[in-house]
Amino acid sequence: MLTELIAMAFDSLRANKFRSLLTMLGVIIGAGTLVAVLSLGNALQGQVFEQFVDLGTRRIAVTPGDPRAKGARDVPGYGLLSIQDFQVLNQLVADRPDLFRAIAPEITVSTQARAGTVALQTLLVGTSADYPQVQRTPMLHGRFLTPADEATGARVGVLGWLVARDLFGTDKEALRNVIGQTIEVNGQPIEIIGIINENGGPFSTDGRIFTPVSTMRLRLIGDLDLPGRGLQMSSILLGLQSEQQVNEAVALIERTLRAARNVPADAINDFDLQTPTQALNVLAGISTAITGFIAVVAGISLVVGGIGIMNIMLVAVTERTREIGVRKALGASDGDVLGQFVMEAVALSLVGSIIGVIGAIGIVWLISTVSGIATGISWIGIVLALTFASVIGIGFGYYPARRAALLPPIEALRYE
């Protein structure tokens, strides 16, 4: 019986090809949009995650916390970070090589850099030779800082891409000749030993100049010490062995610093821990919200398509009233007529959704080919599209089908 109903439903579609196509148009657009949006949304989220991994997801940044926190409150500037905090964490890194791979300080000061007649405001960062092990620094030309630079307080600096571009131009090959030249930073000469390649993103080094901590403290910028606590740190970066260890590392760093800074058990931290996964979760949430919104719009399109199917099925019932009367006169039950028209509505929805899915696969493949982004088809989207289409077919086809099933045979045969 089911096979016969399916055959009759598709015979009806073939008998009115153009009208069936127009009826399915809303379902085609809705199903295609749903599959395409979910597929592309997943691909974009994957691309964002890969960029975060490339830029350094295996690191934690310790930054100053809420100045109102009750930490080492008997010392001026307790809400800030100092060399004492760095030394405590440096020992932690040495004790847990299974968890941490490196530690690097960041002392950041806004200052002026000048090359000839060109001057710009930039960020000067005092750090150590271990910085590349914590934060990605792909070198375009030259080298990064070394322990020898730190030990001697060498007047050397490494330029981020934007700084090098603004001071010397955009030709990356011409920038090779910049290595060895001298620029002024805060009125003091430093030799350029390296240029970092462009690496935009939330952890970009593009707008910075890097120099050894000792050089920054003794030769370039004065008055960087906290009273009674030594050198002030803008942040302390800790590199992890694996991004899977973020939660364990955060808990260990928090316990260590709270103990070292005498933070009472009932007080909030007077420091802050920042992980790339926090920003990643925010971006993923935004991407999911946008994808979900477009998916809802696609679902509305499917509902509109279902209304179109209901409209056409009502017309079909009117056009085929005599056929219904003949079938009932020959012994067809109300259930037989109901099943016939519901099956036709389901067939319209399913065929429309299948066409939409095929179109979506083609669109996703085309975008993947043109953009170079590896894009996979969302099987969840396909299942949702087909399931939703079936539900719509049954839901919007039931009323016309029931109306047809309840027609009295004699009145249906008399209908002109």
UniProtKB/TrEMBL annotation:
Q: Name one GO cellular component term.
A: plasma membrane
Keywords, in A-Z order:
Cell membrane, Membrane, Transmembrane, Transmembrane helix
Which GO molecular function terms does the record list?
transmembrane transporter activity
Kindly name one Pfam family recorded for this protein. Answer: FtsX
Q: Where, per UniProt, does this protein localize?
A: Cell membrane
- Please list the residue ranges annotated as the ABC3 transporter permease C-terminal domain: 296-405
The organism encoding this protein is Chloroflexus aurantiacus (strain ATCC 29366 / DSM 635 / J-10-fl)
Q: Does the keyword Transmembrane helix apply?
A: yes
Q: What is this protein called?
A: Permease
Ranges of residues in domain MacB-like periplasmic core: 20-255
The root-end lineage is: Bacteria, Bacillati, Chloroflexota, Chloroflexia, Chloroflexales
**Domain of life, per the record?**
Bacteria
Q: Which InterPro entries does the annotation name? A: ABC3_permease_C (IPR003838), MacB_PCD (IPR025857), Macrolide_Exporter_MacB (IPR050250)
Membrane-topology annotation of the record: Multi-pass membrane protein
Member of which family? Answer: Belongs to the ABC-4 integral membrane protein family.
